[in-house]
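[agent] plan:
  1. take the single chain provided in the ticket
  2. run structure prediction with default settings
  3. attach structure tokens to the ticket
  4. add a short note for the reviewer (M.T.)
[agent] executing step 1
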Amino acid sequence: MAVQEARDGAGTGAHAGGCACGDCPHGARTGHRRAVAEFLLKRDEFAAGQGLPAAVAHSASASRQWVSEELTQSAGLVAERGRAEGEAWLARLWRRTVFAVGAAVVVLLLVQALTAIGAGWTAARTAGLLAAVVVGGALTAASWFHRARGGALAPVIGEDNRLSTSRAVAAVWVLFVAYAVLVLAGRLAVASGHAERDALIDGLGLARGAGVATVLAVVCGIAVLVRRVVALRVLGQRLQKVRAYRPRAADLLTDDAGRGSFADIQYVVISAVALVFAAVRLARRPDRLPDLPWGLAVLALVSAATYLAGKYAEGGRPVILSVVRTREAGDLDAPIRTGDDIEIRGAGFVPPGAQDADRLSRMVVRIGAVNVHVPLVPVAGGFSNPADSVLTVPVPADVEPGRVDVQVVTAAGVETNRYAIDVTE
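[agent] step 2 finished; step 3 output follows
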């Protein structure tokens, strides 16, 4: 499908069948998909040994370098179109937020109308509906003022352009508590008797909402603390972070590489369960803050602590374990000389979320005082070099014979330890 799309798009103009300009909001997705398709076609052709010019086909090192440069240029175009698509997606998101908020208010109205059959319409239903309108209006206004950064989702988008699990959980709890307080305020505004007003004021007491208040304080504190922890670990080169093209809903449950994260999943699930229980309690007793049982509150706190521990445990600095001379079949064993390929073995060379070609092409190996860009070696469906645990680079002629240090600089800008090797003439 990608190959066919690339071939079909090659014969069309920039604005034929969908604009492919990177700065056009309506065609950013089309342009990105077309660039990805062309890149995949080129990568697969090079992996099959096709498309090499005759001037470099006779030399394995020359052909590898030429292929790497071609793929790097194509990957740069893919990254540029991907960033344009992400910006256009964020610019459109605020409208979707407005529609979602309006739909939620309509659903609440329908649910209240259906449940009022037989029981009758009460002041609590009116207060709940008005509170939803107020919260929805606030979200709509926030979406407008932050329309260039994702609308209402702007506060929960992290510095790496991914949805933050800790901020999202805290934001949902803040909105729910604000809604609950507005419901009580609406009921208090229309209450006629002193006894009813006193009961509503008592419903705001700490004895009633201690569990909810505790959970709210903890999740908000976790959101602030996690941001600080991640920032310090990145600055200390103990955590590698690369920027995503755009936020995705899956970010709430996965790590930066797109793999399911246990710490994130359990935090979202337990928080959602506690929130649903609190919402049911508010619906059953709209005259007080939802009294979240301490057993459920403690479960939410344990889940938050597990999430925080997971943030402390994730990541790690890349490390070089060994460097050896690459030996082709039939070659004699020999020391490392200029012009030879060396294989760097270790861990953490490819940061999570940096598996695309544009990020891989930014990897550099420092041999002595010479910076060597890691060549991209395509295979069917991906790249054999660079990999997370092994890199292969040539030793350039500019490296002086003798004992030199080898150091890897990853796509996230993190440097590994120095590993000394001996280069002979």
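[agent] step 4 note for reviewer: Residues 60-115 form the longest helix (56 residues).
[agent] ticket updated
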